[in-house]
Amino acid sequence: MTSEAVVLDQALLDRFAAIVGDAHALRAEADIGPYLREPRGLWSGRSPLVLRPGSVEEVSRILALATETRTPIVPQGGNTGLVGGQMPHATGNEIVVSLSRLNRIREIDPQSNTVTAEAGVVLEALHRAVDAADRLYPLSLASQGSCQIGGNLSSNAGGTAVLAYGNTRELCLGVEVVLPTGAVFDDLRKLKKDNTGYDLKNLFVGAEGTLGIITAAVLKIFPKPKGRKVVWVSVLSPSAALELLSLALNVAGANLTAFELVADIAVEFVVRHIPGTVRPLSDWPWHLLVEVSSGRSQEDAEQLSEELFDSALFGDAMATFDAVVATSVAQERAFWALRENISDAQKPEGASIKHDISVPVAAIPEFIARAALEVERVCPGARVVCFGHMGDGNLHYNVSQPVGADPQAFLSLYRPMNKAVHDIVRDLGGSISAEHGIGQLKREELLATAPAVGIELMRRIKAAFDPAGIMNPGKVL
After folding, report:
1. C-alpha span between 408 and 389 (Å, rounded)
2. What does the pLDDT look like over 42-55, one tens digit per residue?
3. Please, which residues bridge with residue 356 across strands?
4. What is the pTM of this model?
5. How far apart are CA 149 and CA 314, in angstroms?
6. What is the Cα–Cα distance from 395 to 143, expressed in whole angstroms?
7. Residue 79 and residue 48: Cα distance in Å, rounded?
């Protein structure tokens, strides 16, 4: 079934609206507009109705009616996704279901080190609540002021702390999911060990709303670090950065909580376009943001940091790097601001073709070298803005238009540029989607290049869970 086959007449829309009440059934164009545009402006959709349920029971009734009437449903969280997975299509015959009203933190359990939160809880609000309980929820994203837990789970979000704590899938112990039939799968358990059959929760985490709607989850929390040290490091090459990463893991181990790689052009853009930012070091082609944390004390974090860079200074990497250690919280924030503002700083530089890739950590220098040649082949003069989570192999390999180029002419190269970069990724045993998902952006490429058996297995799972084909049609598969 395709969404084009469905007609959303007024009587049917009224039936859906009655489930949540008129105040939470948005129909006016001005009210619906924010739900139909995504952050990068790559997609805009149409829908006659946005439903904002306030309970799991209302979500259940919505999906039961949708399956009965074969009405396509597009689940949406904070609308911060970057691959179009949360956007309805332009046909205008899909209903958007926003989870923003399901925003209760049901429980914080410091002894079990878990938090149970509903899908509409904003990530930053969860951080604050957990922090007040003297605990840490480590998922950290640039969009944390607006992204929601349900969207984080549905896209298996990554972020800067994956190196030490894992991605969202690894932080999730249990889920509550409304299935397309309206049945509720309640698996909100706090167990860290459970070998009773298939791990069903992980079918929904990362499924981008194609199998059901996540309404709540049990998430891992951790004791808050008692100290941390943030260091800005400049290096000659990605190979030198890889040497320092190996050394940092040997010295700090699990206390290494961030290891971010940043190309110098990214720093240049931030300093040029983000007021108040300054370069910690200049005349280096690559930079690292390194964070060491300690569960014991600030002194312990400082000692680990000193040990790391003392080892580097007297090792083979001595001539390949320079470093500035943050001496205040304000300086730590300034260093992180250089990393976190890269995406915003790219916008004034014109059109950008983006890639969210991962390769084995040891292959990062080879990927960067080979990809740069391919970018120049596809578009001479294009500027590579490479940055990301070197510690876990995930790079945001963005390509900005040549200076003075026509933006639309450059964006017409989106597919050839993607293919050139992704061919190298696959050759190195990597992934074309490390943390942003598939959505609409990478659907065709996934279907064309993934192993046929894998695609067939995913199709079987989709058909088993959603035989009416109502859940987020045209996304992922």
Report:
1. 30
2. 788 999 999 999 99
3. 396, 433
4. 0.92
5. 44
6. 17
7. 18
